[in-house]
């Protein structure tokens, strides 16, 4: 697990974050095309490799195909753009970031293309044909494995049944408020691992929601839920550490995002293996998911939910 979606104000900030993460024991570097931090991360990793602090084989680097690059003839182009920014010949895992396909932008950097406040969908993308293009990346050695993100169970099954190379991973929003039990069990039967993004709710989402009135921001903030306090106090841990251990105990990969690239929080997030929740505590946290509160619905952009591949129309 590793900090993801770093808000890079400058190169030094990202270098500090990457160093803090690796020195703390992280090896999984999770990135996405639209986060605008791949070059900074690439520079930081390259510097550490040159210093001999870590070998490339010790790192697990994940990145993603953006929504505006899902046409089969665009997949390799966007992959190579990410590889160039990350300064590596291959990634360990390449994910289709979302089943919701967008039109291309002129500079390729607009993840979801919006015109006059309306989402510009590309309804001609076939998810199976897109996956076949992903498989070719494995054949060419550009990635060791491929997977999906934000897909629902029906979409996962569609890809799985048609795939020559099966999806290795599904990355979805998953936390105590949205435990994803059904989807996890579904993927486990297919041999697909699960990664939880926003395992602590999601950092900064409340502020983002204030700027986008259409967003539904669950309250209270997950890490401030009163039910976590007695458990955290018992073990001398933070609520965040309790939440992360809960997911890891379930066999889910977690990629927490520390606030403001704080080295102390980066270190705290990995200090979760020196205690173990009891069965009773596990079920207390499990009960927090009864309402299935989702933070990221992609519904703050007009027209997004009308996309034919919008994934949240079914229960899981």
Give the end-to-end Cα distance, rounded to a whole number of Å. Answer: 24 Å
Rg:
19 Å
Strand order of the largest sheet: 1-2-3-6-7-8-9
Residue share in helix: 25-40%
Task: State the shape.
Answer: globular
Q: Uncertain runs with pLDDT below 50, 5 residues or more?
A: 1-6
Supply the helix-strand structural class. Answer: alpha/beta
Q: What is the percentage of strand-forming residues? A: 5-15%
Q: What is the N-to-C order of secondary-structure elements (H for helix, E for strand)?
A: HEHEHEEEHEHEHEHHHEHH
- Average residue pLDDT: 88
Largest beta-sheet characterization: 7 strands, parallel
Can you walk me through this structure?
With 316 residues, the chain is of the alpha/beta class. It is 36% helix and 11% strand. The strands form two sheets. Strands 1-2-3-6-7-8-9 form a seven-stranded parallel sheet. A two-stranded antiparallel sheet has the order 4-5. Strand 7 (169-173), helix 6 and strand 8 (193-197) form a beta-alpha-beta unit. It is globular. 39% of the residues are buried. Mean pLDDT is 88; it is low at 1-6.
């Amino acid at each position: 697990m590793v900090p993801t979606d770093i808000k890079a104000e400058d190169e030094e900030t990202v270098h500090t974050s990457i160093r803090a993460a690796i020195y703390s024991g992280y090896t999984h570097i999770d990135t996405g095309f639209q986060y605008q931090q791949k070059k900074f991360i690439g520079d930081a990793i390259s510097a550490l490799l040159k210093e001999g602090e870590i070998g490339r084989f010790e790192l697990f680097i994940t990145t993603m195909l953006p929504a505006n690059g899902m046409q089969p003839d665009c997949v390799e182009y966007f992959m190579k753009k990410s590889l160039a920014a990350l300064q590596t010949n291959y990634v360990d895992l390449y994910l289709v970031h979302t089943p919701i396909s967008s039109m291309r932008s002129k500079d390729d950097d607009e993840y979801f293309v919006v015109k006059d406040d309306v989402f510009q969908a590309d309804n001609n993308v076939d998810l199976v044909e897109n996956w076949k293009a992903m498989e070719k990346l494995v054949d060419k050695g550009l990635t060791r494995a491929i997977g999906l993100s934000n897909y629902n169970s029906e979409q996962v099954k569609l890809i799985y049944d048609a795939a020559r190379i099966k999806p290795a991973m599904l990355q979805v929003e998953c936390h105590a408020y949205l435990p994803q039990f059904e989807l996890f069990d579904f993927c486990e039967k297919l041999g697909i691992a699960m990664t939880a993004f926003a395992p602590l709710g999601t950092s900064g989402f409340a502020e983002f929601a204030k700027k986008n009135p259409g967003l539904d921001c669950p309250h209270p903030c997950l890490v401030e839920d009163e039910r976590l306090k007695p458990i955290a106090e018992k073990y001398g841990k933070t609520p965040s550490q309790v939440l992360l251990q809960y997911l890891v105990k379930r066999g889910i990969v977690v990629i927490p995002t520390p606030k403001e690239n704080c080295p102390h929080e980066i270190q705290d997030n990995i200090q979760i293996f020196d205690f173990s929740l009891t069965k009773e505590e596990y079920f207390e946290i499990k009960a927090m998911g009864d309402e299935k509160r989702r933070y990221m619905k992609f519904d703050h952009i007009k027209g997004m939910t009308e996309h034919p591949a919008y994934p949240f129309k079914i229960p899981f």
